[in-house]
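Box 3.1 A note on notation
Throughout this textbook, protein chains are presented in two layers. The first layer is the amino acid sequence; the second is a token string describing backbone geometry. Keep the layers aligned when reading.
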Amino acid sequence: LIFGCYAICNLIGSLVLGKYIVQIGAKFMLVSGLFVSSCCTILFGLLDRAPAGASFITLCFIIRSVDALGFAAAMTSSFAVSAKVFPNNIATVLGSLEIFTGLGLILGPPIGGWFYQSFGYEVPFLLLGCVLMCMVPFNIYILPTFDASPSKDSFFRLFSHVKIVLICFLMFNLSAGLGFLDATLSIFAVKTFSLSTGYVGLIMVGLSLPYCLASPLLGFITDKFPATRSWFMVLGGIATAVGFCLLGPMPVLHIPSRLWLLVFMLGVIGFSLGMTAIPIFPEILTCAYDHGFEEGLSTLGMVSGLFGAVWSMGMFYGPIMGGLITQHLNFQWAAAIQGGLGCVAVSITLSSVVIVQFSMVCIMGNIMCPHEGPCVERKYKFI
């Protein structure tokens, strides 16, 4: 529950802050989010000094919840600012930023573990909090002020379009899959292959490394050829679903669990995650503009907030449902079910892509009608 409240508060914070990013100010939101998150990280490192019992639990909930709001503010603003500064290279910029996300996932556990073993519980949190705090004056100095007018558009209008809903469902399945792996993979690897904690951390590199290496290239391709975004999401979703089905592997396949197969499938999932996740933000933004949303910081904030909220929803759902299924069945079946949900999401998304491609063929300025000669302009708008 302590870790679950983080995802819930992140979800709520992303929606609220994304809606009011213009009124709050993008620069102030980013800087204040970093400041709040750094303070909460330092305070979390001091929780071992709190009295045991209800006081300790209450402080954990409060600090994690406030930290989630700070994280939501920083991430929502950073996505919106990146898209504002680089409007023609959004996927490339986000893909480049994901290099550092991957590096954090790769280097965080071993470095944090070394500090924990060498200096105790407090030092890793204090050090990380201080690093975040140093980013506050740096961003105050570097970032410009972004002036914009508030928009009358809302999340309800944004979420009322079918294609955006389908993309969000696909993104929800991606984040749920990652949350599922966070909660269950280490236990499965230790029990099945008798690995130590250090080797389990190395296995997770198989997921993070392909993602951080492929993201910039995938972002560049989807910016250069925008028509590939939908197909990248579909193909990436298919590969992710197959990766989860073979991760265990799926019991009905009667394939014994092998360490090399587990690592290889994690690599497939990591690469396909980049294929699917990187085009999502610019694709939602394009859909919003196509449906009449104003081009500006207000729309960027709403899209950023929606992205963060859906991702947090999946990160909340994945560990809970994955843990329950693993507890009542086993990891192999839980991973297969996660892959099956991915197949459902991809099938629906693929259907929408086919419809859109068909509609693009039908949309013509002037169509020759067999009975009316050079005729009426006909336009079809399916999604």
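Residues 364-383 have pLDDT under 50 and may be disordered. Strands lie at 368-369, 373-374.
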